[in-house]
Amino acid sequence: MCNLPPKFHSVCRLCLSFCGDNCSDVKVPIFDRDKDKSRLSEMIMTYLSIMVSPSDMLPQVVCGSCAHKLDEFHTFRELSHKSEKLLEQFLHYANSLSGPKEVS
Questions:
Q1: 63 with 28: CB under 8 angstroms?
Q2: What residues form the annotated binding site?
Q3: Residues of the chain with pLDDT under 50
Q4: CA 78: distance to chain centroid?
Q5: Which pLDDT value is given to residue 32?
Q6: Cα(9)–Cα(88) distance, rounded to whole angstroms?
Q7: Taking the model in full, what pTM does it have?
Q8: Rounded Cα gap, residues 6 and 35, in angstroms
Q9: Is the CB of residue 65 less than 8 Å from the CB of residue 18?
């Protein structure tokens, strides 16, 4: 095993910011024991295309700022998908009101 600096595992996996004991930002574990509570690993892999694994020997935490950005991106993605569905439904409804188109 290589000699890693003692604080290597305390840096944010995504932005490399360091948050020591006297920092106001929080370190959020990527892998939480309660699967329903933490979906960070899934969001990192889905939205950022970065593979993370509990056994990959890289830092297993992200800073609060990066965790918040992932949450915001997830919310934005959900809103965008919902909006797309509503627009498609509206278009389908509008087309059904106008009746079949006549061919000249």
A1: yes
A2: 12, 15, 63, 66
A3: none
A4: 11
A5: 78
A6: 46
A7: 0.75
A8: 28
A9: no
